[in-house]
Amino acid sequence: MNHTLTITANNEASVVERLLQVTRYRGYQLAGLQLTPLAEMAGLLITLTVTSDKPIHLLTSQLHKLYDVRELQLASADIAALRA
Amino acid sequence: MKGAELVLQVLQQHGVDTIFGYPGGAIMPIYDAIYASPVKHYLCRHEQGGAFSAIGYARSSGKVGVCLATSGPGATNLITSLADAMLDSVPLVAITGQVSQAVMGTDAFQEIDVLGLSISVTKHSFMVRSVDELAATLHQAFAIARSGRPGPVLVDIPKDVQLAEVAVVDVAQQQPENRLTTSLAQSAKARQLIANAKKPMAYIGGGVHMASAMAQLQDFLHQCPMPSVTTLKGMGSVAKDNPYYLGMLGMHGTQAANIAVQQCDLLICLGARFDDRVTGNLKKFAPHAKVIHVDIDPAEINKVRFAQVSFLGDMQKILPAIASTTDCSDWLAHCSSLKQQHGWRYDHPGERIYAPLMLKQLSERMPNNSVVCCDVGQHQMWVAQHMRFSHPRNHLSSGGLGTMGFGLPAAIGAKLARPHDTVIAVSGDGSFMMNVQELATIKRFRLPVKIVIVDNQRLGMVKQWQQLFFNERYSETDLSDNPDFVALAAAFAIPGHSVSRKDEVESALEAMFTWPGPYLLHVRIDEKDNVWPLVPPGAANEDMLMESNQ
Ligand SMILES: Cc1ncc(C[n+]2csc(CCOP(=O)(O)OP(=O)(O)O)c2C)c(N)n1
């Protein structure tokens, strides 16, 4: 199943590497990645699409712990599925 | 002042007076600052050993451990210890020197991408780009290392940043960011589950003592009488006189603990994470139990086992909020009888030393509040089974990573953190050789660490698995050409003694404890002795292999 995550992160040199490392290690496949630097507060807007049979909360809970991740949102379709 | 001096100043602001490390080119400015600093540096003989000493220091004291290494090989030598701290949630700050920014990215001498290497083995890591960020970054490192679920943080500092002049500003110490909120919304539901349970069970991990909630735990077990079990890291959390404490659970847990957990109808998991060494076959683990899970790390909730009710946050607040009277006297009586029925037996035939009995004697003879640092293997499991601890800080064992070579350097750190307590390293003949160079650290600082080597002339734990699961094909586990350990210790001016008969043990322990300095006791045991019970891979925890059915 595909999941799309929207992440606001500190624009630190290593932040993308960290996101990708957690994604790979926790067993999710990368299906899309988009980066947009944000002018305000040296931020970075990241859209991450991943595929896996595993429940997505196992990934989001780990990504949330990354020190440079400020905000993380699942696409609304995913949230609806989680609530179902 | 230079960046290097600022590093030492920030350490002092965090109350750090003891650090462990090894110098080299890219960290020389910091070592130059150490030369005149009141912060005491302990020179280890391998960066892995230095970082394990910092871990032993942190785990035995509850403070943040600090270690230093140079760029390249110095930093790569830290990796195993960082991973160890990561898996056992140990607050550690590792500072590495890096080549100057002018040559970074050119494969300069001793340049390696330490930040990149650190990503999967640290809670967080930093590369300091400017001396103006140095103090704030170090403060942040300390805050991250000890906040929430503690862990290792690495700060990589290029040499030019160490050498750069920085204005002496009174760096206001950043308050550790407090992301911790405790939600008690579900406490009524938890109390109801506890009150209605016929067979409740407390499953206690390292998170309880790390939250300084030992007193709240005893109150909880007193208010809601229920049996309890602990993980390797939770050992020592339950008061020694608690009649319903069943010991460690899991692969080498006690029979009573494993049987009772399989039968319980409510499992209250406190600061633990359903590790596979604990659960055995996860699908068959505690199959009748509802779960209440209390932890500080949101990622642990529902990671491997669904919890009907979960709490995130401060264990000190959560335990009293979920306490409820229990009504389970039949279950308590049943668990007591399991404990009686499956007690350890020490009636081992013959004259040779039986390690479980020797460790029980050691446990009874060691002074109160002694710290025992283990290595990894059969001896580690025997320590967990047959020694008793009054606090988890007194039992340092590499749990998550299971790193051979942990014991001796961890004991050095523990001795420096708690100079007035006895510190004992219990090692195997294989593990001991993995950081044997740290005997030189013991010699230099005359650290009165007591070393007990349980010598079966084998990589015993691997040999046990070869015997049970690989048709007795003993591939590369023979160590019968071990060095003379007592002579080895003597080379470092550490006296020692060797024993191989049961009747020698008591006086040998006496001699070790009465000797004022470091001491090595070499205990020769039978290579045939194995660790029981053992839950074989893939089995449910009630299907334990016992010596009698071999
Ligand atoms: C660094 C490292 N390498 C390999 C292992 C795998 N391993 C686990 S236990 C063990 C044998 C340990 O032998 P010893 O220290 O003599 O202890 P014993 O099991 O004999 O008590 C090995 C090789 C490990 N845990 N750590």
Give me some keywords for this one.
heterodimer, A: 84 residues, alpha+beta, Alpha-Beta Plaits, 4-stranded antiparallel β-sheet, B: 550 residues, alpha/beta, Rossmann fold, 6-stranded parallel β-sheet, 23 helices, globular, binds thiamine diphosphate
What does this structure look like?
The complex is a heterodimer of chains A (84) and B (550). Chain A has 84 residues and is an alpha+beta fold. Chain A has helices at 15-25, 57-65, 76-83, and strands at 2-10, 29-38, 43-51, 69-74. Chain A has a single domain, classed as 2-Layer Sandwich (Alpha-Beta Plaits), CATH 3.30.70. Chain A contains three helices and four strands. A four-stranded antiparallel sheet of chain A has the order 2-3-1-4. In chain A, a hairpin with a 4-residue loop joins strand 2 and strand 3. The longest helix of chain B is centred in the first third of the chain and has 15 residues, at 47-61. Chain B is globular and about 70 Å long. Chain B is an alpha/beta fold and 550 residues long. Chain B starts with a helix and ends in a 26-residue tail after the last strand. The interface between A and B is medium-sized, with 14 and 15 residues.
Going by CATH, the architecture of the largest domain in chain B would be 3-Layer(aba) Sandwich
Judged by helices, strands and strand pairing, the structural class of chain B is alpha/beta
CATH superfamily of chain A: ACT domain
Mean pLDDT of chain B: 96
Secondary structure topology:
The complex is a heterodimer of chains A (84) and B (550).
Chain A: E1 2-10, H1 15-25, E2 29-38, E3 43-51, H2 57-65, E4 69-74, H3 76-83
Antiparallel strand pairs in A: 1-3, 1-4, 2-3
Chain B: H1 3-13, E1 18-21, H2 28-35, E2 40-43, H3 47-61, E3 65-69, H4 73-76, H5 79-87, E4 92-98, H6 114-118, E5 124-127, H7 134-146, E6 152-158, H8 159-163, H9 187-196, E7 200-204, H10 207-210, H11 214-223, E8 228-230, E9 245-248, H12 255-263, E10 266-270, H13 276-279, E11 290-295, E12 309-312, H14 315-322, H15 329-341, H16 355-365, E13 371-374, H17 378-386, E14 395-396, H18 407-417, E15 423-428, H19 429-432, H20 439-445, E16 450-455, H21 460-469, H22 485-490, E17 496-499, H23 502-514, E18 519-524
Parallel strand pairs in B: 1-2, 1-3, 3-4, 4-6, 5-6, 7-8, 7-10, 8-9, 10-11, 11-12, 13-14, 13-15, 15-16, 16-18, 17-18
Helix pairs in contact in B: 1-2, 1-7, 3-5, 3-18, 11-14, 12-15, 16-17, 16-23
The structure holds thiamine diphosphate.
Thiamine diphosphate binds at residues 375-379, 402-405, 428-431, 454, 456, 458-462 of chain B.
